[in-house]
């Protein structure tokens, strides 16, 4: 698998560290309920289709949000998490 | 026998090799298979289950019978297809699955018991009694299983792996592949042309048709001349593309030097090729017919026979019968006749077929059975109502062609059935970016393949945004393809499908009868297609037999799942370079060589190597050195390298605010020139890592992490900075490799540090202070921190000066009665003090468990704060960090042992905690342990049993605080 780092271009998967769903970008604010925290930490959608996942490009230190298809494994888009933040 | 004047072999270059010890004469250009045929060796292997004598069946990588072993000992390669192995002087070939010899094989007795060894035999026989599974049945089955044998010796690490990228990958170099490659290459695309054979050309090397007025090999030569002259083309022969993977990635196995005597070149190379577009032009594989006795040596595929005759100038005998259901039969008869081989009969399954040749012709006929023990002698033929014997030593059979859709089907696409050609073809764009062309696309005439290659080439060229420059299509053979289904002939005797696994039509019908009716179930039940050839020649025929048995069409029956690899790939090629030192990178610290010079044994710490201890002459065991080093630090001064610690700089106006988010304690309030111990949690409330934070200037901090967590902490900081606090103005950078760092510890550490600094006054630092200074003009960072409990410093210097500083520090330390200490002493010193490593920060422990709850700021939010406050992570039920000392007769403690109440049984249910780190403390003259104990902080003074079931160690221990030495820290603050 290859991913396109917005800094460095197309690179082999072995240069990246994966961190799962991009929902971890939406951290609950201080004072959130236990349920909100549990959702944030443990509950994940399991979509058949487009998924947004986070990868860290180790050589340059950029966190990117990758949109990919869990059905075809096609990588659709990649952008820095700074720009992905809602 | 060898045919004079035919073939593309080099008769001026004789080559001699051995087969089962017998010297075989061959020519350069021969394969082991063609050379065996030239020497009239008919039995080339024994089948897997019944040890049936078998002969050459094909001429390519689909060969089911001629599996041999090349080489001896550690260089032995089992299951090499004789049809793919080129001969070289001195090549050592042995046959397989026979004892004592191919023609007198004791294992053939299995054949007599074949009525009892039908499909499902193993499942039915080896079920009961259950106690026999592991001890009796498994060894029995294992001894009988497998075709070739491994030598049992470690293979030489003689292969390589490599990566390649291209615009267009063309797989296969027949007419379609060559035309596709030429079209893409002329348009300027970067092209890789991969061909499994030793020579480019595919069927063009085996047929006698002309193409553009040239012979097949001549035309191939002219195209290759153009391709190899182009800088944008890489031509790879002996390279089998083995698998299709996501994103246009393909695995390919190149047989780099297996075709010549061993030298310095790698044996094989496993390629990963990333292609924007791929053209699958892998051709088609001819299939046989399942009829009684069809495994007799001498029965072979018609296309293979043409290859042997036309390409290698060899024939299996004086006469041949040809049987088929397409015009391929007539083409074969013509080629045989022109080579001087007697055509004893041509049998065409098509009742309306005609022939042009001067040979007995039986339209609508069929072969009923075969005769001959170690080789074909005669055939029983039916024509109309007449049955008769034809004496011949070769039968060329063709049941039609199966397009090679394997690679098109590797990532989920299913092939689709076409009635008109009685075969499966790939669906549209079966793999993203892949186009299928030529015979692989169900086109079986040369002109059609050329045109389809041109089409696919242009599609690829347009897809990558180049202008097309179509080459002219040469004139070529254009016979329409007409086929009538011909799968099997039922009759008395076994009709074989999978020749490698000895699967018969009867086995498939038995599977259907026992309700294993789906192709996948039939496959598992009969082992059809589960041998090294993966059923290349037999699967589709087996599906047709299954379809007939279940009353379904072949189309509705479907196929089993195609999976990589297309041909067997040696593990040594896939793992090339990954043995020994190649298994993982090695990271060496700046003073590594200097530590090795002192005789320090190295210990692996992740990828790093760190000195365990520095032995002096007369010290016999590590403990003597370690104890001395601990005493040296406590009494004078010791120096150790800590360059492996992660070092991260955080810069910017918001750096302090940012650090408040990632550390539990407040860092923004840290004064310039000060250091603070910091604790980081994961968001789930457990401890991630600890370390120090030094503020070098208002907007510049340098952090240390533990060696093990350096990469994880770096990722975490970047995640928080970019993903959770993108509004903060700061930058992070790892400087682990830029700075060498040394700890100087002991009562004389200040004297040592002052003696080497350009300005000795800079060495007068308060505890937890830091400053920039210089040594011999080189800028250094000095931190007054301690991991030993003694007055201590850490000095960081740019890496290229690390070794020089280490030597300087040692020289000065020795003048003060000190010296170097290693990782073992460092560990003892920190256990005496109750300081933490990842043995304690084990991923399950919280700040509360470690007694560090006071470091969790109540005034701010930080990562992990909310969830560290969960009820289950606090309170008496938690296992809390404590210190242990032995108090009974047994003095030794071990790490990983369990703790139980003094009078309690040492059972799982009674478990109270466990030890994490232990050490002999020369300072306190006792073993010390750190442990997690349920409600441990309230149990100081209590006595417990420590039981190590694994090492059979038990001791009575007393619980105390984690810190066993200098609890108020007076020595450290100094
Ligand atoms: Zn990057």
UniProtKB/TrEMBL annotation, chain A:
One of its GO terms (biological process) is tetrahydrofolate metabolic process. One of its GO terms (molecular function) is sarcosine oxidase activity. Coiled coil: none annotated. Pfam families: SoxD. Signal peptide: none annotated. It comes from the Bacteria. InterPro entries: SoxD, SoxD_sf. This is Heterotetrameric sarcosine oxidase delta subunit.
UniProtKB/TrEMBL annotation, chain B:
InterPro entries: 2Fe-2S-bd_N, FAD/NAD-bd_sf, GcvT/YgfZ/DmdA, GcvT/YgfZ_C, GcvT_C, GCVT_N, Sarcosine_oxidase_asu, SoxA_A3. It comes from the Bacteria. Residues 492-577 form the SoxA A3 domain. Residues 880-957 form the Aminomethyltransferase C-terminal domain. One of its GO terms (biological process) is tetrahydrofolate metabolic process. Residues 592-860 form the GCVT N-terminal domain. It holds the Pfam family GCV_T_C. Transmembrane segments: none annotated. Keywords: Oxidoreductase. The keyword Oxidoreductase applies. One of its GO terms (molecular function) is sarcosine oxidase activity. One of its GO terms (cellular component) is cytosol. PANTHER family: AMINOMETHYLTRANSFERASE, AMINOMETHYLTRANSFERASE, MITOCHONDRIAL. NCBIfam families: soxA (TIGR01372). Belongs to the GcvT family. This is Heterotetrameric sarcosine oxidase alpha subunit.
């Amino acid at each position: 698998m290859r991913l396109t780092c917005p800094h460095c271009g197309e690179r082999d998967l072995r240069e990246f560290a994966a961190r799962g769903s991009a929902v971890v970008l939406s951290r609950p604010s201080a004072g959130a309920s236990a349920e909100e925290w549990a959702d944030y930490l443990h509950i994940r959608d399991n979509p058949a289709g487009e998924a947004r996942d986070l990868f860290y490009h180790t050589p340059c230190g950029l966190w990117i949000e990758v949109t990919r298809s869990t059905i075809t494994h096609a990588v659709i888009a990649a952008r820095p998490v700074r720009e992905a933040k809602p | 026998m060898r045919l004079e004047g035919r073939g593309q072999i080099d008769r001026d270059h004789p080559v001699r090799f051995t087969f089962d010890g017998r010297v075989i004469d061959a020519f350069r250009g021969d394969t082991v298979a063609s050379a065996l045929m030239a020497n009239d060796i008919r039995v080339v292997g024994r089948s897997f289950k019944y040890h049936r004598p078998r002969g050459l069946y094909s001429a390519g990588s689909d060969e089911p019978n001629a599996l041999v072993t090349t080489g001896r000992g550690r260089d032995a390669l089992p299951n090499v297809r004789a049809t793919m192995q080129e001969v070289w002087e001195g090549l050592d070939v042995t046959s397989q699955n026979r004892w004592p010899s191919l023609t007198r094989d004791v294992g053939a007795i299995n054949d007599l018991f074949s009525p009892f060894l039908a499909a499902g035999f193993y499942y039915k026989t080896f079920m009961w009694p259950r106690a026999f599974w592991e001890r009796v049945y498994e060894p029995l089955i294992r001894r009988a299983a497998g075709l070739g044998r491994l030598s049992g010796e470690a293979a030489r690490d003689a292969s390589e792996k490599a990566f390649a990228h291209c615009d267009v990958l063309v797989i296969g170099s027949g007419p379609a592949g060559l035309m596709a490659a030429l079209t893409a290459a002329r348009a300027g695309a970067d092209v890789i042309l991969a061909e499994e054979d030793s020579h480019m050309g595919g069927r063009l090397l085996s047929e006698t048709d002309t193409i553009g007025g040239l012979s097949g090999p001549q035309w191939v030569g002219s195209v290759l001349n153009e391709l190899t002259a182009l800088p944008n083309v890489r031509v790879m022969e002996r390279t089998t593309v083995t698998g299709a993977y996501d994103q246009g990635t393909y695995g390919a196995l190149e047989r780099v030097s297996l075709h010549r005597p061993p030298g310095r070149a790698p044996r094989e190379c496993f390629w990963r090729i990333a292609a924007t577009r791929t053209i699958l032009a892998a051709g088609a594989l001819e299939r046989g017919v399942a009829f009684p006795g069809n495994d007799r040596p001498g029965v072979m595929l018609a296309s293979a026979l043409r290859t042997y005759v036309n390409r290698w100038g060899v024939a299996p005998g004086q006469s041949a019968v040809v049987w088929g259901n397409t015009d391929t039969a007539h083409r074969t008869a013509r080629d045989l006749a022109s080579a001087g081989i007697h055509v004893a009969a041509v049998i065409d399954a098509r009742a309306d077929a005609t022939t042009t040749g001067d040979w007995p012709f039986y339209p609508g006929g069929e072969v009923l059975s075969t005769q001959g023990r170690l080789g074909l002698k005669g055939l029983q033929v039916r024509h109309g109502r007449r049955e008769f014997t034809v004496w011949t030593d070769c039968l060329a059979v063709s049941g039609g062609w199966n397009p090679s859709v394997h690679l098109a089907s590797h990532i989920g696409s299913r092939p689709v059935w076409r009635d008109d050609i009685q075969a499966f073809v790939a669906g549209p764009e079966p793999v993203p970016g892949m186009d299928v062309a030529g015979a692989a696309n169900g086109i079986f005439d040369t002109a059609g393949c050329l045109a389809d290659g041109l089409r696919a080439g242009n599609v690829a060229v347009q897809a990558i945004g180049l202008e097309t420059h179509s080459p002219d299509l040469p004139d070529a053979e254009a016979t329409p393809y007409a086929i009538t289904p011909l799968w099997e002939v039922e009759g008395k005797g076994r009709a074989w499908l999978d020749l490698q696994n000895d699967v018969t039509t009867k086995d498939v019908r038995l599977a259907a009868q026992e309700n294993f009716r789906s192709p996948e179930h039939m496959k598992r039940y009969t082992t059809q297609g589960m041998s090294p050839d993966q059923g290349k020649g037999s699967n589709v025929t087996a599906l047709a037999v299954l379809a007939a048995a279940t009353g379904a069409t072949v189309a509705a029956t479907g196929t089993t799942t195609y999976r990589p690899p297309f041909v067997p790939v040696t593990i040594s090629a896939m793992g090339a370079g990954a043995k020994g030192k190649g298994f993982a990178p090695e990271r060496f610290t700046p003073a590594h060589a200097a530590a090795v010079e002192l005789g320090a044994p190295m210990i692996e710490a992740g990828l790093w190597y760190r000195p365990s201890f520095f032995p002096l002459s007369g010290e016999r065991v590590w403990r003597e050195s370690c104890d001395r080093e601990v005493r040296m630090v406590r009494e004078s001064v010791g120096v150790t390298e800590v360059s492996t610690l992660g070092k991260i700089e955080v810069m910017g106006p918001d750096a302090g605010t940012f650090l408040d988010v990632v550390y539990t304690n407040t860092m923004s309030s840290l004064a310039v020139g000060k250091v603070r111990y910091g604790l980081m949690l994961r968001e789930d409330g457990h401890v991630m890592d600890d370390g120090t934070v030094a503020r070098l200037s208002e907007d510049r901090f340098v952090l240390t992490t533990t060696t093990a967590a350096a990469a994880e902490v770096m990722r975490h900081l970047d995640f928080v900075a970019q993903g959770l606090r993108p509004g903060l103005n700061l930058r992070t950078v790892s400087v682990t490799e830029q700075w060498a760092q040394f700890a100087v510890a002991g009562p004389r550490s200040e004297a040592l540090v002052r003696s080497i600094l350009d300005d000795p006054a800079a060495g007068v630092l308060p505890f937890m202070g830091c400053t920039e200074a210089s040594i011999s003009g080189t800028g250094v960072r000095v931190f007054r921190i301690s991991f030993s409990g003694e007055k201590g410093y850490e000095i960081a210097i740019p890496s290229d000066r690390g070794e020089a500083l280490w030597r300087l520090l040692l020289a000065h330390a020795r003048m003060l009665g000190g010296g170097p200490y290693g990782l073992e002493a460092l560990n003892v010193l920190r256990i005496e003090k109750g300081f933490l490593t990842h043995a304690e920060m084990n991923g399950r422990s919280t700040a509360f468990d470690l007694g560090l709850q006071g470091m969790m700021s109540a005034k701010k939010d930080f990562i992990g704060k909310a969830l560290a406050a969960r009820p289950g992570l606090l309170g008496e039920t938690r296992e809390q960090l404590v210190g242990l000392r032995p108090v009974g007769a047994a003095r030794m403690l071990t790490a990983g042992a369990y703790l139980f109440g003094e009078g309690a049984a040492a059972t799982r249910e009674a478990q109270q905690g466990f030890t994490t780190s232990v050490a002999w403390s020369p300072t306190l003259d006792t073993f010390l342990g750190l442990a997690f104990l349920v409600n441990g902080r309230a149990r100081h003074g209590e006595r417990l049993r420590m039981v190590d079931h694994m090492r059979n160690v038990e001791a009575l221990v007393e619980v105390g605080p984690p810190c066993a030495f200098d609890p108020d820290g007076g020595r450290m603050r100094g």
